[in-house]
Amino acid sequence: MDAALEALATTARAWLSQAESIAVLTGAGMSAESGIPTFRDALTGLWSRFNPAQLASEEGFRADPALVWNWYAERREGVRRAEPNAGHRALAAFQARHPGRVTLVTQNVDDLHQRAGSTGVIRLHGDILEDRWLERRSHACDLAQAQPGTPPRCAVCGNLVRPGVVWFGEMLPAAALAAAERAAQRCDAMLVIGTSGAVWPAAGLAHAARRAGARVIVVNPHDSELDEVAHLRLQGTAAAVLPALLDAL
Ligand code: APR
Question: Which of 40, 171, 177, 200, when mutated, tests ligand 1's pocket best, judged by the most ligand atoms within 8 Å of its CB?
Fold first, then answer.
């Protein structure tokens, strides 16, 4: 860290040390150094001709189930190949040193926080490695013989399997959102890491923490929509900033 950044980090460490309760809100930038593309990075390769909002939606899935299923299959493979980075590990170790003080809320659908050892992770947008049925049925659906490249379906009623993530236009899991809002309203400090702040209600958690009187610290190499609610911004990447910021606490 350069001298200017180190000076800011010293202030941030003081705020975190004084905070009885700390909330952490992470976004796709948290996993960027693990090789998982962020959502607003230009989609690469085959997917560059699609708009993520089209693919990550029920409408997009119903319009072309195989296309959307294959996009998620490729992303799932990327998550399985990825490893938690130094930022995930620093957060998990910090949480373990301060039992009961740190609540981690993530927008990410990968499992890297959990694999790094973070506990009680509040997942606002679901789990990309989880499957669920597209339609709610009164009967128990029964998986048909898999057809490669197409989503699994029910042998009886044709119901499709979809990824267990929250798509654009869908409600967030109520319990997760309520827990995240409680954490934001009760915390004395919030660390906001690797999120553009472009998507609500997740982005609103930083605003709620600020309104409730928490010190808001943003960690991001670039400007973001949450700079406006930050008391302090550490300009840098998660894997570089978080160990330097947290390992001594
Ligand atoms: N370390 C920290 N931050 C980084 C890094 C990094 N190495 N690399 C990029 N970033 C920052 C970018 O500057 C950007 O602000 O991460 C942020 C990623 O922003 P988005 O791609 O918009 O991801 P996110 O904020 O998590 O999106 C929120 O939108 O698309 C939906 O459901 C999806 O959960 C996602 C939500």
Answer: 40
**Choice among 88, 98, 113, 125 that is catalytic:** 125
Q: List, for residues 78-107, the tens digit of each pLDDT value.
A: 999 999 999 999 999 999 999 999 999 999
pLDDT tens-place string over residues 35-78: 998 877 666 665 667 777 788 999 999 999 999 999 999 999 99
Q: Give the 3-state secondary structure of 58-122.
A: HHHHHHCHHHHHHHHHHHHHHHHHCCCCHHHHHHHHHHHHCCCCEEEEECCCCCHHHHHCCCCCE
How many Å apart are CA 246 and CA 249, to the nearest integer?
5
Distance (Å, whole) CA 114 – CA 7 = 31
Is the pTM higher than 0.85? The answer reads: yes
125 catalytic? Reply is: yes
Indicate whether residue 196 lines ligand 1 (CB < 6 A).
Answer: yes
Q: Is the CB of 121 under 6 A from ligand 1?
A: no
Domains and CATH numbers, the chain: 1-36+83-125+172-249 (3.40.50.1220), 37-81+129-165 (3.30.1600)
* 216 touches ligand 1 (CB under 6 Å): no
Q: Using 50, 70 and 90 to split pLDDT, how confident is the model at 113?
A: very high
- Does 195 sit in the ligand 1 pocket, CB within 6 Å? yes
User: What are the start-end ranges of the E strands in the chain?
Assistant: 22-26, 102-106, 122-123, 126-133, 161-165, 189-193, 215-220, 232-235
